[in-house]
């Protein structure tokens, strides 16, 4: 339950230039924050290539390649137009599991269509010189479209089953869409790599239910990560005013939004019937007041052995990095790092074992956490 842990806070004055910054001592280890790259506009998603370079999306609709030394490329060509307004734009990006052979990748965006905007999943191939996207193909539109530019969601992950998992937001104006099973908003979708509903999905063949749906009742999902210890999928979402959640993804589960939850409307008005009820899945962890969790990653590297198996969440309103200790599929504690310093959209682990943080700002940067002794 929220408040069950007493978080320790470790803070630094911020990132330095290209050298190492001040030492930050957390409960488990010490690290430095280094400014790795800059010149990005609201970076949103990141994917590391096998050679250590990084593809980074910018919400206004650009895709960049960042070198191992932190140099940012010109925008890659071949990226389709996006609906870059409000929370919409170019969002998450994920390499295919066999990228080294196929150079295939997946990305999602806000797209304008007849009737309004929606969340779109596409597939493409990265060119041999990594300067463009080729063979771009729309795989899925989270219909129906609507007006407005909020709550697109859209994180992508590949499960141990090889299937593609994708989150969609409730689109904000009509939160009841998250409970409507003929509607792809406010859901977690499970797909084959060509965008078809995945074999074994829980609602295949059920009348009036979209077969892509794996789980429902989701508000504004901003993080999605596979627990390396158990193989389970963890979904992270923002509540309204309070009620941010981490959910353990289960086939056919309903996570309750907007029927149950722990937050209130931004006006202070009541939203939910109750905090919990039978037939709806309780979160693993929730926060009130809000911390606005965004990107998520489980740490599996060698640079910080004491952090191995921990879940890291980038946060927006609380402007920091949250470290959660995990045993199996339970959250056992939390630590707030770099709190109150910088809106963070995503946290990603590099092949070097360092953690990379994408800052959510018009003059966006990539920060790197390195062991204090390196």
Could you describe the 3D structure shown?
The chain is mainly β and 374 residues long. The protein has one domain (8-371): TolB, C-terminal domain (Neuraminidase), CATH 2.120.10. Helix content is 1%, strand content 41%. The protein is built from 1 helix and 25 strands. It has a 5-stranded mixed sheet with strand order 1-22-21-20-19, with no helix packed on it. Strands 2-3-25-24-23 form a 5-stranded antiparallel sheet, with no helix packed on it. The model is unreliable at 1-20 (pLDDT under 50).
User: What's the CATH topology label?
Assistant: Neuraminidase
What is the H-and-E element order? EEEEEEEHEEEEEEEEEEEEEEEEEE
- Described by the principal axes of the CA atoms, the overall outline is globular
Overall mean pLDDT:
94
Q: CATH superfamily assignment?
A: TolB, C-terminal domain
Looking across the biggest beta sheet, what order are the strands in? 1-22-21-20-19
CATH class: Mainly Beta
Largest sheet entry: 5 strands, mixed
- Supply Rg: 19 Å
Helix-residue proportion: under 10%
Beta-strand proportion:
35-45%
Number of strands: 25
Poorly predicted tracts of residues: 1-20
In whole angstroms, the N-to-C terminal distance is 37 Å
Instruction: State the secondary-structure class.
Output: mainly beta
By DSSP (H or I, 4+ residues per run), the number of helices equals: 1
Architecture, CATH level 2? 6 Propeller
User: What is the domain tally?
Assistant: 1
Domain Glucose/Sorbosone dehydrogenase: 40-368
Pfam families: GSDH (PF07995)
InterPro entries: 6-blade_b-propeller_TolB-like, Glc/Sorbosone_DH, Quinoprot_gluc/sorb_DH_b-prop
Protein name: Glucose/Sorbosone dehydrogenase domain-containing protein
């Amino acid at each position: 339950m929220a408040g069950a842990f007493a978080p320790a806070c470790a803070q630094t004055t911020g990132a330095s230039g290209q050298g190492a910054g001040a030492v930050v001592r957390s409960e488990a280890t010490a690290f430095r924050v280094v400014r790795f790259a800059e010149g990005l506009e609201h970076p949103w998603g990141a994917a590391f290539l096998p050679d250590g370079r990084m593809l980074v999306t910018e919400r206004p609709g650009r895709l960049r390649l960042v070198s191992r030394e932190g140099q940012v490329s010109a925008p890659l060509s071949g990226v389709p137009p996006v609906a870059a307004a409000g929370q919409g734009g170019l969002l998450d990006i994920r390499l295919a599991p066999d990228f080294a052979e196929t150079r295939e990748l997946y990305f999602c965006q806000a797209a304008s269509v007849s009737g309004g905007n929606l969340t779109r999943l596409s597939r493409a191939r990265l060119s041999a010189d990594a300067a463009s996207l080729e063979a771009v193909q729309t795989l899925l539109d989270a219909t129906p479209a609507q007006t407005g530019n909020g709550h697109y969601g859209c994180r992508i992950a590949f499960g141990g089953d090889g299937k593609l998992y994708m989150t969609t937001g409730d689109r904000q104006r009509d939160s009841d869409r998250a409970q409507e099973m003929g509607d792809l908003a406010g859901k977690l979708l499970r797909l084959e790599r060509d965008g078809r509903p995945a074999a074994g999905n829980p609602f295949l063949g059920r009348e009036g239910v979209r077969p892509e749906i794996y789980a429902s009742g989701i508000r504004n999902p901003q993080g999605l990560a596979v627990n390396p210890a158990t193989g389970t999928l963890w979904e992270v979402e923002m509540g309204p005013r309070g009620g941010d959640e981490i959910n353990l993804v289960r086939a056919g589960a309903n996570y309750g939004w907007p029927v149950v939850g722990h937050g209130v409307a931004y006006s202070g008005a009541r939203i939910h019937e109750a905090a919990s009820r039978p037939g709806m899945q309780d979160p693993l962890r929730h926060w009130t007041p809000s911390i606005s969790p965004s990107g998520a990653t489980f740490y599996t590297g060698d640079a910080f052995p004491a952090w191995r198996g921990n879940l890291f969440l980038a946060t927006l309103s609380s402007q920091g990095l949250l470290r959660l200790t995990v045993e199996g599929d339970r959250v056992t504690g939390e630590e707030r790092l770099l709190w109150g310093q910088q809106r963070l959209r995503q946290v990603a682990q590099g092949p070097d074992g360092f953690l990379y943080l994408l800052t959510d700002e018009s003059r966006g940067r990539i920060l790197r956490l390195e062991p204090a002794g390196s």
